[in-house]
Amino acid sequence: MGLSTRLATVVAFLASSSIAAPVSTNAQYCEDSICYSEVTVGVAPITYRIAIPAVGEGPFDILLQVVAPKSVGWAGIAWGGGMLYNPISLGWPNGDTTVPAARFAIAHVQPDVYEPAEHTVLKGSAANATHWTLTTLCKGCSTWVHNGGAKEALDPGATAASFAFAASATPPIDPTDPLSPIGIHSEHGTFTLDLAAAKSEQFDSWVAQLT
C-alpha cells in the first residue's frame, strides 16, 4: 500500500467523546521475581504494569508491561495524565510477538512519532490465540517538554500518579512497523497508579533478566 493511500485511510487518534471516570489501584503483580504496580482498565479489559528504579527524581527508565485480549488492535498509555503534550507508549500484536511504539499528540489528530522515547522489546513479549503481552523498557518516557516549553517529569515518589490510556479494536495499518499510522481509539480514560510502590533497588537486574 502506498504512503498516500495509507495516510488517506488514517482517522483521528483522539475523539471528542467523554473520558471515562478515573480508576485507581494499589495492586502489585510479581512474576519471576520481577514486581510491578498494576492497574486493569477499560472494557477489554487491559492491564498496565509499571516498574521503575529506586530514584528520587527523573529522568529514569521505565519497565512497562501491557496485557490485552487479542481483540485489542492497539493499546497505549500516556505518561502525563492526559493524551496531549506528553509521551504515549503504544503496543500491538504482530504475529506471535508484539511491537512497541512512541507517539506525542499536540491536538486531537493523528499523533506524531516521538523520537526522544526509545522502546526495547523484552522477554515476555508474545501473542497467542487469546491475548497479547508487551514487555518493554522505555528510555525517555519519564520527562518531556509540555506545551509552551515547560519541562515536566514523572514523580517517582507519587502514590497516586495520573496516567491516561487509549485502545482500539482496529490494528495499525502496518502492524510490523512501529512508525505505522493508527486509527481512532474505541475507548480512552484515566487512572492513577502507585509509582512509589513500583520502585525497586533491583530494577537494573530486572532489566538484565528480561534482556
Helical segment count: 3
On the 0-100 scale, what is the average pLDDT?
A: 89
Helix content: under 10%
Radius of gyration: 16 Å
- The helix/strand class is mainly beta
The termini sit apart by: 34 Å
Q: Tell me the major beta sheet.
A: 8 strands, mixed
Order of helices and strands: HEEEEEEEEEEEEEEEEHEH
Q: What general outline do the C-alpha atoms trace?
A: globular
Uncertain runs are 1-21
How much strand content do the residues show? over 45%
In quaternary terms, these chains amount to single chain
Q: Can you count the beta strands?
A: 17
Give a written overview of the molecule.
The chain is mainly beta. It is built from three helices and 17 strands. Strands 2, 3, 4, 5, 10, 11, 12 and 17 form an eight-stranded mixed β-sheet that branches. Strands 1-16-15-6-7-8-9 form a seven-stranded mixed β-sheet, with no helix packed on it. Strands 13-14 form a two-stranded antiparallel ribbon. It is globular. Mean pLDDT is 89; it is low at 1-21.
List the SSEs and their pairings:
Elements: H1 3-8, E1 20-25, E2 27-31, E3 34-41, E4 46-53, E5 62-69, E6 74-78, E7 87-94, E8 97-104, E9 112-113, E10 118-121, E11 126-127, E12 131-139, E13 143-145, E14 151-153, E15 161-168, E16 187-193, H2 195-198, E17 199-200, H3 203-210
List keywords for this structure.
3 helices, 45% strand, disordered N terminus, 7-stranded mixed beta sheet, 17 strands, mainly beta, 9% helix, 8-stranded mixed beta sheet, 211 residues
Outline of this structure?
The chain has 211 residues and is mainly beta. The protein contains three helices and 17 strands. The protein has helices at residues 3-8, 195-198, 203-210, and strands at residues 20-25, 27-31, 34-41, 46-53, 62-69, 74-78, 87-94, 97-104, 112-113, 118-121, 126-127, 131-139, 143-145, 151-153, 161-168, 187-193, 199-200.
